[in-house]
């Protein structure tokens, strides 16, 4: 089926931010007395909004994170983005292909608008994403795995959910896309394929290199 809208996740799909943000998150949680390794951060938080961090820490420890946790975390992440962040290899060619073929696309991310825009400015992707193509979990209140964000993006773009395909790299994102009634293609450059095909997060297709995506979409 040819889709009428391609919805991209941001972190790990458009920008290579997951190693940076999860390194910082693990360090920050450890500083605050919640020892966390980089691998544990990837396992527990990849693809989730920051409220998930609060929920998981409280469920495990009964302790709340500081009120200024979100601001502190995002400040550290954006400072690191400005030094280190790069676009995912091949993603510019995909966006150029979609534009040339007249295929609508947007981004729907668990990250904040501030974080999305900072990453796009750093990597030059702001050329491809104006404000009308950027949607954040901030817009809906509930992040992935809830379907709200993807449904909101589809509504704003004027496309029925069943005509959308989501490009995701996290189990939480795959769950959200499936719950929204959308097709979902799992990007396995960083996430093991078995995590995107497990029960409740079974992507329709998997691909390892961004250069393969146009062929799947066709």
Q: What is the helical fraction, as a range of percent?
A: 40-55%
Rounded to the nearest angstrom, the radius of gyration is 16 Å
Largest sheet, described in full?
A: 6 strands, parallel
What is the residue-mean pLDDT, rounded to a whole number?
94
- SSE string: EHHHHHEHEHEHEEH
Major sheet: arrangement of strands: 3-2-1-4-5-6
Task: Give the overall silhouette.
Answer: globular
Distance between the first and last residues' Cα = 8 Å
Low-confidence segments, given as residue ranges, are none
SS field, number of helical segments: 9
Query: How many E-type strands?
Result: 6
Structural class: alpha/beta
What fraction of the residues are assigned to beta strands by DSSP? 5-15%
Task: Explain what the structure shows.
The protein is α/β, with parallel strands linked by helices and 218 residues long. It has nine helices and six strands; from the N terminus they run βαααααβαβαβαββα. It has helices at residues 18-31, 38-45, 50-61, 69-84, 91-101, 113-123, 148-157, 171-179, 213-217; strands spanning 5-8, 105-109, 134-136, 164-168, 183-187, 205-207. Strands 3-2-1-4-5-6 form a six-stranded parallel β-sheet, covered by helices on one side. Helix 1 packs across helix 2 (38-45) and helix 4 (69-84) packs parallel to helix 6. The chain is globular and about 50 Å long. The termini are close together.
